[in-house]
Design brief:
The protein has 17 helices and 21 strands. The chain is α/β, with parallel strands linked by helices. α2 (62-79) runs antiparallel to α4, α3 (81-92) packs across α4 (96-121) and α3 runs antiparallel to α7. The longest helix has 26 residues, at 96-121.
């Protein structure tokens, strides 16, 4: 298990002396706050051996035994919420509110949800077959844990997106190695401490701090990989997993469109546009990244949004209520945001507010509203993942839908209209894994419904029954109790038996009605 050296930061060698440590920075101040080991492939293999040794015992605890530990962890998160929030804020520079609402609330609810629903989602299923050849036999489908799950996480939500995916994997009876982003490893290490305090057996949950190579080594060791991050790295993970035929689940980038129709509640839509594009500094996989507004309400909507975004406070978060928009977590992300805004400006877009990096300590980009944009601009087609909101005027809903679907991504989308029945119909024409009407992002809190991307936004889903079954192998069990010494289809073959079977098949399926 990796551990953390608190500041003063010094290079920390992995136990094999293979790789140097990774400094962890507070993006809101620029200060280095800790250094964590950069685990080598050999060290990841050691963790994997420990995990494999622990798996059978963990599985044998059953849903009840595992659920008891997960429920204890739920209480632990609530009891230590302040410390967890401080840790998240220190390594991300996000606001206290972003850490509380999107991370503490999520972890709290997820521990309870999976402890409660794992037994139901993974219960043995008795199956009745339509096949006359198998009638009378007992058929059972069961869900067995895959064994060792490797979770590779990003930096935008160190608790929700990295640790959150470990919870259902553990509930299903797997052991887990979490490879957090090298940018934000401290929250995962804190959660490992919490899980130990809650009585999780040695080796069941481990954290492998390190960079992309550590992640690659985990792909080689695990029985299944749950990856959240960029589409580019997701492709690399898939390719590497192909070497060992390891299944991979991917939650990748997005370019979520917001479609504002002429009959929308403009005040609510404008508040939502400001919030869902700027919360977490716009570093949300399901952030509102582009807006299409029907011409008759375009000017009013733009005015409202611009006024709201202009009023947002930004800077180092020092407590609840201090700022609305925090730091840019990942250093190269600032370059991407700057490139998208510069590209838009060069092609004729107008910046109504923001439009530059903030000067002074820390890494910040001003909350930005862009208009006069179109699909020749990167800000409308590539994931920006920053506090920017490009707004485009469209003639009607048809044009908005066409442009919304003109993207390699398909994670989420939102539609804004008072005619909710029409909104629901239009939602079905959007190519995205989730579509919200008069809302955005909050579907993530409904752990009952699947969350996952279409197109290049991902493979598989989290949440819902599928969100835990993906961590299992299905096994079909057939049991024959009463049977003759020999079934009619067994050897020897005879022309008479085959003629009879032919007639029986014609009777059964000849008119297509019994299919
Ligand atoms: O992600 P990476 P980055 C998007 C966002 C951002 C971009 C890049 O657009 O600009 O991704 O972010 C590990 N084998 N999102 O560079 O590289 C890495 O160490 C195995 C969307 O941080 O995908 C980290 O733990 N693992 C997103 C994790 O992969 C490897 C959230 C993610 O890193 C690896 C964050 C390799 N070869 C960014 N290389 C979302 N969907 O929410 C790196 N890693």
């Amino acid at each position: 298990m990796a551990s953390v050296d608190e500041a003063p930061a010094v290079a920390t060698n992995g136990s094999n002396g293979v790789a140097a440590g990774i400094p962890v920075e507070n993006p809101a101040t620029g200060a280095v706050i800790a250094t964590v080991p950069n685990l080598s492939a050999a060290e990841v293999a050691e963790l994997a051996a420990k995990a494999r040794a622990a798996q059978a015992g963990w599985e044998a605890l059953g849903f009840e035994g595992r659920g008891a530990i997960l429920n204890r962890a739920q209480r632990w998160v609530m009891d230590h919420a302040d410390r967890i929030i401080e840790t998240i804020v220190s390594e991300t520079g996000k606001t206290y509110e972003d850490a509380q609402l999107a991370e503490i609330a999520y972890a709290g609810s997820a521990f309870g949800f999976w402890a409660k629903h794992a037994p139901e989602f993974l219960a043995d299923e008795r199956v009745r077959t339509e096949s006359v050849f198998v009638k009378g036999k007992k058929l059972v489908v069961r869900y067995a844990p895959v064994g060792l799950v490797g979770v590779i996480g990003p930096w935008n939500f160190p608790l929700t997106n990295s640790f959150g995916d470990c919870i259902p994997a553990l509930a299903a009876g797997n052991t887990v190695i979490l490879k957090p982003s090298e940018v934000t490893p401290l929250t995962s290490l804190l959660m490992a401490e919490g899980m130990r305090e809650c009585g999780i057996p040695e080796g069941v949950f481990q954290v492998a701090t390190g960079d992309g190579e550590t992640g690659g080594a985990l792909v080689d060791e695990a029985d299944l990989i749950m990856f959240t991050g960029s589409t580019k790295t997701g492709r690399k993970v898939l390719a590497r997993a192909a070497e060992t035929i390891t299944p991979v689940q991917l939650e990748l980038g997005g370019k979520d469109p917001m479609i504002v129709l002429r009959d929308a509640d403009l005040e609510r839509a404008a508040n939502a546009a400001a919030y869902y594009s700027m919360n977490n500094g716009g570093q949300v996989c399901i952030s509102t990244e582009r807006v299409y507004v029907e011409a008759p309400v375009y000017d009013e909507f733009v005015d409202k949004v611009t006024e709201k975004v202009r009023g947002l406070r930004q800077g180092e978060p020092t407590g609840f209520g201090t700022v609305e928009v925090g730091a840019v977590i990942f250093p190269p992300q600032l370059d991407i945001v700057e490139r998208h805004v510069a590209d838009a400006r060069a092609k004729g877009a107008t910046v109504l507010t923001g439009g530059r990096a903030r000067e002074g300590a820390g890494r910040f980009y001003e909350p930005t509203v862009l208009v006069g944009v179109d699909h020749t601009m990167a800000c409308m087609t590539e994931e920006t993942f920053g506090p920017t909101l490009p707004i485009m005027k469209v003639a009607d809903a048809e044009e908005a839908l066409r442009l919304a679907n003109d993207s390699p991504y398909g994670l989420q989308a939102s539609l804004w209209t008072k005619d909710t029945a029409r909104g629901e119909q239009l939602a079905r024409r959007v190519e995205a894994g989730a579509v919200t009407v008069n809302d955005a992002q909050v579907n993530y809190a409904a752990l009952e419904v699947p969350m996952g991307g279409w197109k290049t936004s991902g493979l598989g889903t989290r949440h819902g029954a599928g969100g835990i079954r993906k961590y299992t192998k299905q096994q079909a069990i057939l049991v024959t109790k009463l049977a003759p010494k020999k079934d009619p289809h067994m050897f020897p073959y005879s022309a008479r038996k085959s003629r009879l079977l032919g007639r029986a098949l014609k009777f059964l399926y000849g008119r297509g009605k019994r299919a």
